[in-house]
Amino acid sequence: MLAALGFTVAAVLFGLFTWSLPEIKGKKTEALTRNYKIGFMFLTLAFLVFGIASAINDESILSMSVMIGDILIVAASLFILSILYSGNKYLKYILGAATIAGAGFLIVRGVAFFPEPFMEDSILVFNSPRFVNFVIASTFLLVWLPVNIRMAKLFTANIDNSGRVIDLYVYMYFAATFAAAIFVLSKKPITLAISFTAVCIAFLMLVIANRLINILGERSHGRK
Amino acid sequence: MEENNQQPPQLNPDTIYPEATKGPVAGDTSTYQNTAEPQVVYVQQQSPVDSWSIVLFILLLLTFFTPIGPILFLPMIVVGIIAATRYISKSNKTQNNFVDQAGNPLNVKIEQKSDPLYSILRIIGIVAVTLVLGFVGLIGVGFILLASSPRGMGS
Questions:
Q1: A157 to A160, A212, B8, B108: CA distances (angstroms)
Q2: Contacts of A152 (CB under 8 A, 6+ apart)
Q3: Cα(A105)–Cα(B89) distance, rounded to whole angstroms?
Q4: Residues of A with CB below 8 A from B122's CB?
Q5: Which residues, in sequence order, are bridge partners of residue B42?
Q6: Is B2 exposed, middle or buried (0-12, 13-18, 19+ CB in 10 A)?
Q7: Does A154 contact chain B (CB < 8 Å)?
Q8: b/e for B118-128, b at 16 or more Cβ within 10 A?
Q9: A178–B133: do the CB atoms touch at under 8 Å?
C-alpha cells in the first residue's frame, strides 16, 4: 500500500502544481503555459496509473501500468518539446520527427523490452533496462530541464528579482526535474524511496512558491 | 512609477520567450519598477541546445553504458547545476542591460522592494533546493559506494 499511497500523493502534488502555475497574459505565452500544463497533466495521469496498479498489485497489471506510464511520459514530453522549440520555423518537422522517434521507442519498449516491474518492500520497482532508463533520463535532462527553467523565468517575468529570489525559484525547478529524472531511473527500493521523497518535497515547495508568485504578480499588476 | 502618455506597446510573447528583458522607454530617466506590462522588450534568442547540454548528454551516455558510470553520477549533477547557473546568470545579465528600441543601452536602476513575501519565497527556495539536491547528492554518494555492485547504477 506504501507505493499506492506514495504515487497518489505524487499525482496530487503534480495536479496541484499544474493548477497553481502562474497565469501569463499574451496569446502565445498562454499557449506555452497550456502545453506545459498538458505535459504535467499527462505526468499526473501516469503517476495515478502507477498508484492504482500498485494498489491492485497484480504482475500483469503492473507491467501494463508501466507501459501506459511510458506512453504518457512520451506524450507529455512531446508537449514539453513543443515549448522548447516554440517560435522555431521547423517546429512542425521537429515535432513530427520527435513523434516518430517516440512511437519507435514505445514499439521497441513494447516488443523488445516489455516492462517487468515488481513490488519489493511495498515499493514499486520499475526494473527497466538501461536503454529505456537512458532514453527517459535523457528526455528529462535535455528536454524537460531547459523547458522547466525557461518556464520558471517566464512565470516570473513580472516579478522583481530582489535578493535573487527568482533565481532560487528557477533552481527549484532545476532540482525538481533532476530528482524526477533520478526517480525514473532508480532500481533499488532505497534509491526509489529517497528520490521519490525528493520529488515530493520539490513539488510541494513549488506549489507553495507558485501561489506566492501569483500573489506577487497580482500585487505588481495592482501597483501599476 | 512615472506614467507615460504614450500607449505602451503590446507585449509580443514570441519575443519575450525564451528570454526577454524589460526596461523603460527611451529617454525616461525615472527609477524603473518592474511591472506587469513592460514598455520595451529586448530579446536575446537562445539556442535550446547549448554546449552544457551536450556535456550533460555525454555524461549520461558514460553513466549508463560504461563501468565507471556510478562514479560519474555526481559530476553529472555538478554539470547540471553549472548549466542551470549559467542560464540564470545569463538571464540576469541580460535583465540588467536595458536597451531602448534602437538597441541603445539605458542607465536604469531597479528599485528593490521589501515585501515579506519575497523573504518567505526565498526561505522556501533555499529549503527546497538544499533538501532536494541534498537527497540527489546522497544518492550519488550511494552510487559511488555501491560502484562495485555487478548490477551497476541504480540497481
A1: 8, 14, 17, 17
A2: A166, A169, A170, A172, A173
A3: 36
A4: 163, 165, 168
A5: B21
A6: exposed
A7: yes
A8: beebbebbeeb
A9: yes
d(CA A93, CA A42): 23
Q: And the C-alpha cell for A33? A: 503555459
- Residues in B 11-70 with any Cβ partner in A closer than 8 A: 11-14, 16-20, 22, 33-38, 48-49, 53, 56-57, 60-61, 64-65
Kindly report, residue by residue over B52-78, the tens digit of the pLDDT: 778 888 888 887 788 777 777 778 888
Residue A60: exposed, middle, or buried by beta-carbon count in 10 A (0-12, 13-18, 19+)? exposed
Pairing of strands A118-120, B40-43: unpaired
Q: How many CB atoms lie within 10 A of CB A114?
A: 11
- Substitution target in B14, B32, B132 with the highest count of A β-carbons within 10 Å is B132
Q: Supply the pLDDT for residue A98.
A: 96
Q: Which three cell numbers stand for residue A83?
A: 515549448
Whole-structure pTM over 0.90, yes or no?
no
- Chain A interface test: which of B3, B93, B121, B141 (most A C-beta within 10 Å): B121
- With 0-12 / 13-18 / 19 or more C-beta atoms within 10 angstroms meaning exposed / middle / buried, residue A62 is buried
CB contact under 8 A, B132 and A85: no
Residues within 8 A of B (CB atoms), A 29-48 only: 29-30, 32
Of B57, B112, B139, the CB nearest to A194: B139
How distant is the alpha carbon of residue A172 from its chain centre?
Answer: 13
> What is the Cβ-side half-sphere exposure of residue A11, based on CA atoms within 13 angstroms?
17
Q: How far is A216 from chain B (nearest CA, A)?
A: 8
Chain A, residues 114-143, CB within 8 A of chain B, namely: 130, 133-134, 137-138, 141-142
The three cell numbers of residue A155 are 512565470
B32 Ramachandran zone, left/alpha/beta (phi>0; psi -120 to 50): beta
- Residue-wise pLDDT for A18-48, tens only, equals 999 887 777 778 888 999 999 999 999 999 9
